[in-house]
Amino acid sequence: xxxxxxxQRSTDVQQHNRDQAIRLYLDGMKRNKIAxxxxxxxxxxxxxxxxxxxxxxxxxxxxxxxxxxxxxxxxSPTREKKLQEIVVGKMPDQMQLPFAL
Length: 101
What we know:
By secondary structure, this protein is mostly helical.
């Protein structure tokens, strides 16, 4: 069986695999067999089981991935909008910047 990176699967498939793993775990199946069936690493199934035992099904829900909108920005939304108004629609030489773009 060729190893697939589970992170490359859609979030629907990932959630289904987590749910299936928990059902098999509750039926008494061993973690290594669950990992083989679901197609993830043995350690991943252990992580899912611990999270399930600590927080139930809610702990296994897949959240939104990536950075939150606006995370890491330096400018406030108001200043960002103002800067966009100044720059958009102008040629670099119109801006009279002391450097090349």
